[in-house]
Amino acid sequence: MKVSTFKMDSKIISVFILISVIVTLSYAGEEEIKTIGDFLKKFGNINMEEVLQNDRLFQAYHKCFLEQGPCTPEAREMRNVIPSLVKTACDACTPEQKKEMKKHLDYARHNRAKEWEELLDKYDPKREILEKFLSSVPDK
Question: What pLDDT does residue 71 have?
Answer without folding.
Answer: 92
